[in-house]
Design a protein that fits this description.
Blueprint lengths: L2 E5 L10 E9 L2 E4 L4 H6 L4 H7 L9 E5 L8 E9 L9 H14 L5 E5 L5 H14 L31 E5 L6 H25 L7 H15 L2 E5 L1 H7 L2 H7 L7 E7 L7 E12 L19 H16 L4 E11 L11 E3 L5 E3 L7 H14 L4 E6 L3 H7 L4 E5 L2 H13 L4 E3 L17 E2 L7 H10 L7 E6 L5 E2 L10 E2 L4 H13 L4
Parallel strand pairs: 1-7, 2-5, 2-6, 6-7, 10-11, 10-14, 13-17, 14-18, 15-16
Antiparallel strand pairs: 2-3, 4-5, 8-9, 9-11, 12-13, 15-18, 19-20
Helix pairs in contact: 3-4, 4-5, 5-9, 6-9, 8-10, 9-14, 10-13, 12-14
């Protein structure tokens, strides 16, 4: 994990491999952003002119490297675009700082130490830069750098240092002795470490990450961070009547698990339950996915990874709220023992579900977990899932949908997501779509109308939420796994989508801001 340091050093005196400065789009060309005054002075006040000559404009995410002049104690100056210069008296947007820091950190892969001299006027600014840099520096290298047994011994082996993430982020302009700045830095480290752990889980190949091994990771983290962990294995699931989890997982040699993580605070007045879809691999089951749709299905446990990361973050931050996480873990595989289209499952709630499509499996494991979570009567439940391709069609690859049984709660979750820099959009739960899930055989079918499929899935889940409990559903199918080129602080592969939203929701609940 990349280290974070708050430094009192000036940009001109810091010894590091590189120095990151901000460049913004002004009315008459690029403008050097606050924080880089000493660097501009080292360029005789012509840094913006030099960068413009090199083609830099200050556009968001733009990165330009140039050799450092003799007046600095670094080798390279990295100018990163911040977008438009803010209006007079306005600060740079937190998300712009986050993305700029992330872009710079990615560009400095292989470096040991870099100073970040971006605009930092408040603890919130420092938090944004720290988060962006630490998330941007992420790299998944666990399966790289194995010894090449065919290569001559003199050729060497091991990982290429150029692929390793930036070793240390030195945040300039912050105030190490100020309580607010120190707290912001500590929070940034705790949350980004857990986001990156979630990313690692999402990126881990399914031959190594399956329900039992995921549960083991959760148990180990629980011991480390004082979180109570309970794991229900196949025998316990059978005894408890968890028909959704068992039905989805019965086609695999890796049996399903339901993991309960419980963080409690002695002075907590509210309880928040988080439920995550944890399909460690989704082949579609008997309703097999076509070629071209299987290759990234290790990411179908992103919701469970987000819930896991959020609970651990709450514990590390010592939040004054009780947070319970439910990881609904199963592997959806076709076999002679797999659930068939037309089968009927008896869920933990007692309801029966006719399975019309075994690739609509996430809602089945979530249904059991939602019912179990509801039994504890939390003040609110939020489930997170890579649930439907329909939501990707509706909102694209970078925005998740928010549905809820309470309009005010849905609005709060949406506003929190936007506040922390996670794009989301409130979606309805039209009552008329419920009729499409009527079954002549069972209480409900797991499929309904094709049009509005993401909303149909939300309506299905709502059936399993306890009466009187505020509930929200986050469909992160789009942003959970990024297949394109990295941008900002978003890497290729697992992104850790929804973790920041869940953590801020827990913080708001702890502060009593959600009623």
């Amino acid at each position: 994990m990349t280290a974070l340091t708050l430094s009192t050093s000036g940009a001109a005196t810091l010894r590091a491999d590189a120095l990151v400065v901000g460049l913004a789009k002004g009315a008459k060309g690029p403008v050097v952003a606050p924080g880089a005054e000493a660097v501009d002075k080292a360029f005789d006040g012509k840094l913006a002119t030099v960068l413009e000559t090199l083609g830099a404009s200050g556009a968001e995410g733009e990165v330009t490297k140039l050799p450092a002049p003799s007046g600095l104690k670094v080798q390279v100056v990295v100018a990163v675009g911040l977008g438009q210069v803010p209006a007079k008296d306005d600060a740079y947007d937190a998300e712009a700082l986050r993305r700029a820091a992330g872009s710079a950190a990615r560009a400095l892969k292989g470096s040991k130490k870099a100073g970040f001299a971006l605009p930092v006027e408040s603890a919130e600014d420092a938090a944004a830069v720290a988060e962006g840099a630490l998330l941007g520096a992420y790299a998944f290298t666990a399966y790289q750098g194995g010894e090449n047994k065919l290569a001559p011994k003199s050729a060497g082996s091991g990982r290429n240092d150029a692929k390793l993430p930036l070793g240390e982020v030195v945040l300039l302009g912050a105030k190490p002795r100020d309580k607010a700045f120190k707290a912001a830095a500590e929070r940034a480290v705790a949350v980004t470490e857990e986001i990156n752990r979630a990313r690692d889980l999402v990126n881990t190949p399914p031959n190594d990450l399956y329900p039992e091994s995921f549960a083991a990771v959760a148990s180990a983290a629980g011991k480390e961070h004082g979180i109570k962990v309970q794991v229900l294995d196949e025998k316990a699931l059978v005894k408890g009547g968890y028909g959704g989890l068992l039905g989805v997982g019965q086609g695999s040699t890796h049996g399903p698990r339901l993991v309960r993580l419980s963080y409690t605070h002695p002075k907590a007045e509210k309880t928040l339950a988080l439920v995550g879809k944890g399909i460690t691999y989704d082949s579609g089951g008997i309703s097999l996915k076509p070629a071209g749709h299987n290759e990234t299905m290790k990411c179908d446990m992103s919701g469970a990874a987000a819930v896991f990361a959020a609970v651990v973050s709450a514990s590390r931050l010592g939040l004054r709220v009780n947070v319970t996480g439910w990881l609904a873990l199963a592997e959806n595989m076709p076999s002679g023992n797999a659930t068939r289209p037309g089968d009927v499952l008896r869920m933990y709630s007692g309801k029966t579900v006719e399975v019309l499509n075994t690739d609509a499996e996430g809602r089945l494991v979530l249904a059991d977990a939602l019912t179990r979570a509801s039994e504890e009567k939390p003040d609110a439940i939020v489930d997170v899932a890579t649930l439907t391709g329909a939501m990707v069609l509706a909102l694209g690859n970078r925005t998740f949908g928010v549905m809820a049984n309470d309009d005010a709660f849905r609005t709060s979750v949406h506003e929190i997501a936007e506040e922390v820099g996670e794009a989301s959009w409130p979606m309805p739960l039209p009552a008329d779509l419920r009729k499409g899930m009527d079954s002549p055989t069972a209480d409900i079918a797991n499929m309904g109308e094709r049009m509005g499929g993401g909303l149909v899935a939300g309506l299905f889940l709502q059936e399993f939420v306890g009466e009187g409990i505020a509930w929200a559903h986050l469909d992160i199918a789009g942003p959970a796994f990024h297949e394109g080129a990295p941008y900002g602080y978003t890497p290729k592969g697992g992104t850790g989508s929804a973790v920041r939203t869940l953590v801020r929701l827990a913080e708001r609940t702890a502060a009593g801001d959600l009623g």
